[in-house]
Design brief:
The complex is a heterodimer. By secondary structure, chain A is an alpha/beta fold. Chain A has helices at residues 50-57, 81-91, 107-117, 122-135, 151-163, 181-196, 208-211; strands at residues 5-17, 23-35, 39-44, 65-70, 73-74, 92-95, 169-173, 200-204, 216-221, 224-227. In chain A, the strands form two sheets. Chain A has a six-stranded mixed sheet, with helices on both faces. A four-stranded antiparallel sheet of chain A has the order 2-1-4-5, covered by helices on one side. In chain A, a hairpin with a 2-residue loop joins strand 4 (65-70) and strand 5 (73-74). In chain A, helix 3 (107-117) crosses helix 4 and helix 3 packs parallel to helix 5 (151-163). Chain A is globular and about 50 Å long. Helix content of chain B is 55%, strand content 18%. Classes of the chains: A alpha/beta, B alpha+beta.
Chain lengths: 236, 399
């Protein structure tokens, strides 16, 4: 296998089960490869399995069937919480559409939280968090609670949180979906920086303006990869 | 790390102050009850001990059953003591007494006190000491003298300005008696009578002039050896039956109690009370634990989304378990501390109003507090466990 491949999915299936035992297949045999440092956008119709795919890659969902190679290692069958939590904590950073910050905590404590789970000493955590918040222009607002921040500011705090443990992979689910276009652009600027830092980015989006920042677009339809290198129409 | 998680737990409890306080209330009441229970238990124990402190293990008491059960009248008289001493086996000493209450006055001071009519052996047999003057002597009993030996409290109540009580004339139940002695302060009770607040007079005087048939006759005997208590008890019974000329079909018109079984019975009833109250305290703690469990379930339900986020950013099951468990433990510990403070504060208040005998003990607070922590862990574990096992994606989707 090519050493540059960070994520490789082979015939990945994921089904949900209703209370009556009925199976709802969402991913129906996904095959894809994502290289180190690549910025990939996942597009597709609603209900096509974009978010489920992201959750599978982010180790939030166990696979129903198939193989998931992370840096060459098949973790598709790993069910042990300790290992999965370690991967989510150290290897990946999650960015959500609705920011998902802890409303009771200040921006600083929100950013430092993953480092707390990683066991980083208090002082290191705070220094790292302050540095990150400073780098996205939030240095003066780090003691504010999320409710005292605008959407764009909250998303910048959430981005800092995803970076605190210096993960290889950033997973973003509609990161600009809840933002106005100006804040959205600012967020996409940060995403472009991820590429310069050598991070692999997988971003779910349904808007072409956002998807055009990516190196490659994977198009999903009905739980399968329709196109591994989807081209946007030229007007974007 | 653990410190930070404790801080997080504190923050979330402080965010819901009213709820936190209400769920603590059960623990507060529970722990305060435990402390009160231990104080009552110890108080009961101490009052049993002080009641019987002056009773040696080889004492046997005989009391009339007059007015009780099927026997309508008892022929027990103080002079039966003499018959027992002479005829019953293994008896080292015997003394008769008659007890009752009467109004005692001196000058303008008047009060109702316990009256004990005794023979010349009583003061010695009962381990009493004379402070000043003399005791009741054989001639006082035979001559039905109008003399009295008074308890220490009466002496200090009646004779305030350093007046010498010896030789003073007090009125007891309308009869004038001369004070001939004062007893040393005892501080405890002797059977039913508080000796410090009693007037001791010759038994003949009491039976004939002051108490009459209203008095309760009591004979205190000592056995030569504790091992002979059983023999002595049955021997006393047969002597008294023949003295009272009871036919074989008639029941005893007296009760015989030996000191050992009296103390045992009193301690047994103190123990029963303690275990009953302990059961109540345990139920209170159990109910408060269920309350905490309920509140924790509500908290977990409310913070489901938070749990999802925590998992997505790398929180382990154990991190989430620890956080929620700590919240319930903090709730119950703080509740326990408040309960301890309230429980300890209640003891002097209740003692002040003399509602029930209480004595503070170290075991009460320790057990109360430890139980509160155990309740927090035990009842907090299940909600915290449930929280830690939530599916991260489902949790993230909840609002």
């Amino acid at each position: 296998m090519n050493n540059d491949v960070v994520i490789k999915l082979v015939d990945v299936h994921k089904s949900y089960y209703l209370a009556n035992g009925e199976e709802i297949p969402v991913l129906k045999g996904i095959n894809l490869e994502i290289k180190k440092g690549e910025f990939v956008a996942i597009m597709g119709e609603s209900g096509g399995g974009k978010t489920t795919l992201l959750n599978v890659v982010g180790c939030l969902h166990p696979l129903s069937k198939g193989k998931y190679f992370l840096s060459g290692e098949n973790i598709g069958e790993v069910r042990d919480d300790f290992t999965l939590a370690f991967i989510r904590n150290k290897k990946m950073g999650f960015i959500f559409q609705q920011f998902n910050l802890f409303s009771r905590f200040s921006a600083l404590r929100n950013v430092a939280l993953p480092a707390l789970y990683a066991g980083t000493p208090c002082e290191d955590r705070e220094n790292k968090a302050k540095k990150l918040l400073g780098s996205v222009g939030m240095g003066s607002r780090m003691n504010h609670k999320p409710t005292e921040l605008s959407g764009g500011q909250q998303q910048r705090v959430a981005i800092c949180r995803s970076l605190i443990n210096n993960p290889e992979i950033i997973l973003a689910d509609e990161p600009t979906g809840a933002l106005d276009s100006k804040s959205g652009l600012e967020v996409m600027d940060i995403f472009t920086d991820f590429k310069k830092q050598g991070r692999t980015v997988i971003m779910v989006t349904h808007t072409a303006e956002v998807a055009k920042y990516a190196d490659r677009i994977i198009y999903l339809r009905d739980g399968q990869v329709l196109d591994n290198d989807y081209k946007l129409k030229s007007e974007y | 790390m653990i410190l930070e998680i404790i801080k997080m737990s504190f923050d979330s409890l402080m965010a819901k102050k009213t709820r936190s306080f209400l769920s603590m209330l059960g623990i507060i009441i529970g722990v305060a009850t435990v402390i009160a229970v231990f104080a009552v238990g110890k108080g009961a124990q101490e009052s049993v001990n002080s009641q019987f402190r002056n009773l040696s293990a080889n004492s046997i008491m005989i009391m009339s059953t007059r007015g009780r059960g099927s026997v309508s009248s008892s022929k027990l008289v103080t002079s039966d003591a003499q018959a027992i001493l002479e005829q019953a086996e293994n008896i080292a000493s015997a003394t008769g007494a008659i007890q009752g209450n009467a109004t005692v006055s001196y000058g303008s001071t008047e009060n109702s006190y316990g009256i004990v009519g005794v023979d010349h052996n009583y003061i010695n047999v009962s381990n009493l000491k004379i402070e000043t003057g003399r005791g009741i002597e054989e001639e006082d009993v035979s001559g039905r003298s109008m003399v009295a030996v008074i308890g220490a409290t009466i002496a200090s109540d009646f004779f305030i300005d350093g007046e010498d009580p010896i030789g003073a004339i007090i009125t007891v139940g309308g009869k004038r008696l001369e004070v001939v002695g004062i007893l040393k302060k005892l501080g405890s009770r002797l059977g039913m009578i508080s000796i410090d607040e009693a007037v001791i007079i010759p038994s003949s005087t009491a039976e004939k002039s002051i108490l009459g048939t209203k008095g309760q006759v009591m004979i205190v005997t000592t056995v030569d050896n504790v091992d002979n208590t059983g023999i002595a008890t049955s021997s006393i019974a047969s002597v008294l039956r023949s003295e009272h000329k009871l036919s074989t079909t008639q029941e005893n018109d007296f009760n015989i109690m030996d000191a050992g079984s009296m103390v045992a019975a009193a301690q047994e009833s103190a123990k029963t009370m303690t275990s009953l109250l302990t059961a109540i305290a345990a139920i209170t703690l159990l109910v408060s634990g269920i309350g905490i469990m309920n509140v924790m379930f509500v908290t977990v339900a409310e913070r489901t989304k938070e749990i999802g986020i925590a998992k997505a950013i790398g929180g382990k099951q154990s991190d989430i378990l620890l956080q929620f468990l700590l919240e319930s433990v903090i709730l119950s510990m703080v509740g326990g501390l408040i309960g301890m403070a309230i429980g300890q504060a209640l003891i002097p208040i209740i003692s002040y109003f003399n509602l029930i005998a209480m004595a503070s003990s170290a075991t009460g607070p320790i057990i109360g507090f430890s139980f509160s922590v155990v309740v927090g862990i035990f009842f907090g574990f299940y909600p915290a466990f449930k929280a830690s096992r939530l599916d991260p994606v489902d949790a993230l989707r909840s609002e």
